[in-house]
Amino acid sequence: MKKNAQSITLLVLLITSIIACSKSTTTNVLPVSAVTVKDIPADTVVGLSAQGIPITNGKYTFYSLEKNAIVPNTDSATTKWDIAFLATRIIINGGTSGKGLGGAFVQTGLFDNLKTIPADSVFKTDNAPTSYAITSGSGKGWYTYDGLNNLITPLAGRVLVIRTASGKYAKMEITSYYKGGVTLPASASDADKLNKQRYYTFRFAYQPNGTKTF
Amino acid sequence: MKKLLLFIFFTPFLLEAQVLIVNDTMQVKGQGDSVFVTANRAERKLSNVTVPVSIVNAKQIQQTGSLRLTDILREQPGLNLTSGFGAGVQMQGLNPDYTIILINGEPLVGRTAGVLDLNRVALGNIKKIEIVKGPSSSLYGSEAMAGVINIITEATSVIPLAASLRYGSYQTVDAGIQNAFSTQSLSYQGFYNYYSTSGYSIRPNSNSRVTTPIGRFTFNQQLKYNISERSNISLAIRITDEKITNDISVSNGGATINSIGKENNKDQNVNLVFNHRFSNYLKTSVKSYFTEYNAKQDLVTISGAPYYDLLNHSFKRIENQTDWNINKQLNLIFGIGSVWEGVKSSRYDSEKVRKSNTIQYGFTQIEWAPSNKFILIGGMRFDKNEAFASAFSPKFAGLYKINAKHKLKLSIGGGFKAPDFRQMYLDFTNAAAGGYSVFGSAQAQQVIGKLSTLGQIGTLYDSYYQLKTLKPENSTGINFSWEFEPNTKTYISAQLFRNDIHNLIQVQQVGAYFSGAQIFSYLNIGRAFTQGIELEGMYKFNTNLNVSAAYQYLATGDKDQIAQIKSGKVYTRGANGYSQLLSLSEYVGLPNNNKNKAQLKFSYNKDNGFFANFRMLYRSNWAVNNTNGNEVFDKGDEFASGYISLHTSFGKGFKNGFSLQAGCDNITNYIDPQNLPNLPGRTFFATLKFQIIKKQNKS
């Protein structure tokens, strides 16, 4: 599959703990930076069949949070990737999905407020096809589907808490499912709804030191 | 004072006074007082009605050029029309499900997804439309939660023959004939109307019509026979038959499927009423009513796959009501009735088996006028249902005339809405859209249990185990209003209202198939409120020109959602796309409700039969789609823009019986294909009418 050009932008540094806050007990963990990634294609539509049915390649896009880069499909059987996307389905490198140590769960709350993953958190692993660490389905994992208008919207206030293939920790917030990070209105054309979908925009923070603190 | 009370109580027995209401909803002092029947289940002078009401009279219907019930309700203060499953009416912020539509006091049936398509009702022979807002008119039973709209057609012999023909944009033709005769003891009125339109599409490059080509025939016969001075019997038959060509294109994942659709909807009602007056103090009536609504929809796709939908709703009712004037201050009404209701649908488990319910009910109301300044009313109704829990609806209303200029009204009532057959018996799987299923609550557990033994069910939610016999939805409403007539030219009123709804029946996911497809059913889970202010004013510049204005402010909310927002569990997305907590000030309440609505109308009438009017309607924006990743409607969601629409109509009546009328609706051509499919662009019409007016004997 053709790799779409992608723009990767480094964004805001989390500086909360650097700013001196006299009363708080300071923990000596270096803050990790949050990175915003735009327009990661996730099995986008490549054409229409003679009957007008959309055609896709049916392949995941693999991503390394450590390297902050797309991993070629040829490396799908390795531990080089941490998370992969195919339409609304998200898999994590672990369990039935890969050889890695990966696991994940969806936490309700704000990205910035998740400073430390609670010790008693249970990381789920993929067990295809019955269950996935990141639950799929409208309203159950990270998105809702509006059947009337045929639109996917990422749920607000959901943080994907991820254990990577190498056993490190990361947190992620998906902000859009459409190209350019936009929110399509219900009145958007069918062509736009079809062709602009399956592009993920998300931000994540990766903690390379193995701790659960961001 | 005694005379006044006598007049109040004996109004039903008086011959109808020559009354004329100049404008929509208000009557200005010195212009007569009309009779209102819906609020008290008995005829009362409008000035003595204790709950918020309005009247739309025949003259207004005619002068605005309204053809269907939708046309005229669209222009009433505080009412909105909804689209989807036909055009329904939204009152005090409540959905069309909660307003009962009566024709001469008897309900219309045949709702699709809770909506009764008001285009079904032709306005040609309507004498007046009475509108009661708030559940204080709860004596009407189920559905009368937001209010009651009662369409009154009456046999009149003033016009022995009338014929009209109208032609307008989109090849819209409306032809009507009305005939009547009367003898000493017999009066008859017939009404025949044919309406057709080629429909329109305001969506560019679309072959599906927003308003579909329709041919609609209405047939109405009314006969009244005075058996004696004390007794009469009347029979009314009404049939509406509509044929709709509904060719549609469905886009499924980019593939467009064209289909040829044919719909046939038939609505028939028969109403037989016997009235007897025992004395000047006691009268009774027995009403029997039968109605049936048949809807059939065939859709054939180009690939040949047929789709077929059938609904048959029948409703039979017999009711006895007795009115007793105990003394000059006390009036008592009591009644009992029985309803047999049944629905057959292709969306239930078997379209051959009729789902049925029987209801026995009783009601009573006492009206006390201790002085000519006070009127107090207390009433209650009890409905015993076979298919679901019983319902009790109380009401209380009071009127206080401070002086000749000021009047206060307070009403409090409880209303309910019975679970409808769809919520109990639906058995619907949408194969086209991912295979989700909706099962009515009465059989969801049984059906899902069966599917489970076949190994088809993947997961069951907690809500599945909470499924039980549905309770009626109920509401309590309070209305307070002040009316002020400073002089004979001016009328002002202000009204506050609040409705609290409990046990709202909502669709809830109860489980999922192994394939992941969702399974839904219905549960009593919601709590909501609507509240607002309504202001109305009217001023008569002179005998020819008057102006009226109205404004409504409306606030609505889902109480559970508000509780969740308050406890910090609801998120939204900021401008940067990142999640943040939703604050209560960003919450906008229930969808499809606009906060502000206003109207301004000018009406000009001359003695020589010339009239003209100009109407301006305004609606502020309203939330239509959840786009920012939470389940509540807030400022970050998608809104339909507010808009103003302008309408005008003018005409002249001639002495020889001919009259001409022309008009233009939506002058500025405001369209919004996505959110206002019912609002066509600018349309024109012209009407020619001829009527024979019988000279009335002055007696």
In short:
Chain A is mostly beta strands.
- Highest CATH level, the class of chain B: Mainly Beta
- Count structural domains of chain B: 1
Radius of gyration of chain A: 18 Å
The count of DSSP E runs of length 2 or more, i.e. the number of strands of chain B, is: 39
- Number of beta strands of chain A: 14
Q: Quickly give the CATH architecture of chain B.
A: Beta Barrel
Multimer state: heterodimer
Secondary structure: helix percent of chain A = under 10%
The biggest sheet of chain B amounts to:
22 strands, antiparallel, barrel
- The helix/strand class of chain B is mainly beta
Q: Main beta sheet of chain A, described?
A: 6 strands, antiparallel
Chart the SSEs and their pairings.
The complex is a heterodimer of chains A (214) and B (699).
Chain A: E1 8-10, E2 34-41, E3 47-48, E4 54-55, E5 61-64, E6 69-71, E7 83-86, E8 89-92, E9 103-108, E10 143-146, E11 151-154, E12 158-163, E13 169-178, H1 190-195, E14 197-207
Chain B: H1 2-10, E1 35-36, E2 44-45, E3 53-57, H2 58-63, H3 69-73, E4 79-82, E5 88-91, E6 99-103, E7 106-107, E8 126-133, E9 147-153, E10 161-168, E11 172-182, E12 186-197, E13 214-226, E14 231-245, E15 248-252, E16 255-277, E17 282-301, E18 306-325, E19 330-345, E20 355-371, E21 374-385, E22 391-401, E23 406-417, H4 421-425, E24 427-430, E25 436-439, H5 444-453, E26 457-460, H6 462-465, E27 473-487, E28 490-513, E29 518-540, E30 545-558, H7 559-566, E31 571-573, E32 579-581, E33 596-605, E34 610-619, E35 622-625, E36 638-640, E37 643-653, E38 658-665, E39 683-692
Parallel strand pairs in B: 6-9, 25-29
Antiparallel strand pairs in B: 1-2, 3-8, 4-5, 6-7, 8-9, 10-11, 10-39, 11-12, 12-13, 13-14, 14-16, 15-16, 16-17, 17-18, 18-19, 19-20, 20-21, 21-22, 22-23, 23-27, 24-25, 26-28, 27-28, 28-29, 29-30, 30-33, 31-32, 33-34, 34-37, 35-36, 37-38, 38-39
